[in-house]
Specification:
10 strands; 22% strand; 25% helix; alpha+beta; 264 residues
Length: 264
């Protein structure tokens, strides 16, 4: 389920991390990266902070999950993490240098015919004509939290960019997600091409919130951006000039990069 918040209030605690990563890029304010690939954790400190952010948002703020879903270290993980690619957005405050994880997401992989994605379990009627194909992805635990509303929205788009580039680069043709209608409408306004697969439904698994199943084709996003010659779509500036780093790495204060910025 996606949990990027539309309003700007932040009630969930945002985990701080002690990291020297920005010392190599003094002009950067944000870092976006893959912090885990299935059972391989690439950046332990960021990954732990991301799973703490998940617990703080899904358990304490949104009440999607019950308190027993938080482990002894304050983290929230489930069985799907063992088949997921996890991303995190780290921010360094320009005022005091405090570093914290303000966004996270994961892509759950369907690795075999015997596996089901969560969306297949929650919306079985969508797949009556056939299951999701092997190699399909599901966007999950998608969280953006920041005191500044504009930054919060940009973090969400930057995570979408990174996940899209990952999917295209790894030839994952389809991605699904379970989403509340207000957040769907917010993404729709950015120009993100999405296909609604179901009517909204109350899901007890996510605190009795009303959600719907949505499908997206990652290559369609890239194609739509490439065809947006006049750059009318808001997502265009996020995907332009990002083929070199797949949307990962260091970014200035606006979370986008122009070719002349020089940050790699």
């Amino acid at each position: 389920m996606l949990a990027a918040k539309v309003q700007s209030e932040v009630s969930a605690e945002i985990p701080q991390v002690s990291s020297e990563i920005f010392e190599t890029e003094p002009g950067a304010q944000f870092w976006i990266g893959k912090v885990a690939v299935e059972n391989v954790i690439n950046s332990p400190e960021y990954y732990v902070a991301a799973t703490k952010l998940r617990a703080n948002v899904y358990i304490d703020e949104m009440h999607f999950l019950t308190p027993d879903c938080r482990d002894a270290n304050g983290c929230e993980r489930d069985q799907d993490d063992d088949r997921s690619v996890a991303f995190a957005t780290v921010e360094r405050s320009p005022e005091d240098g405090v570093t914290r994880v303000i966004g996270t997401s994961r892509l759950i992989k369907k690795r075999s015919d015997d596996e089901k994605l969560p969306v297949e379990e929650l919306f079985p009627e969508v797949f009556e004509d056939g299951p999701a194909e092997v190699g399909a992805l599901e966007v999950s635990r998608f969280i953006s939290r920041h005191e500044d509303k504009a930054t919060q929205h940009l973090v969400a788009l930057a995570l979408i960019r990174s996940m899209t580039q990952y999917a295209v680069n790894n030839e994952n043709l389809t991605a699904y997600f379970v989403i509340e209608r207000p957040f769907y409408r917010l993404l729709q306004r950015t120009g993100l091409p999405m296909e609604v697969l179901s009517e909204p439904r109350i899901l007890p698994k996510y605190g009795n919130t009303k959600n719907m199943a949505v499908r997206i084709t990652p290559k369609d996003i890239i194609e739509q951006v490439d065809n947006d010659i006049e750059e009318k779509l808001f997502i265009t500036k996020f995907f332009k000039n990002e083929n070199g780093n797949l949307g990962l790495g260091f970014y200035p204060e606006n979370l986008t990069r122009k070719k002349e910025d020089g940050i790699q």
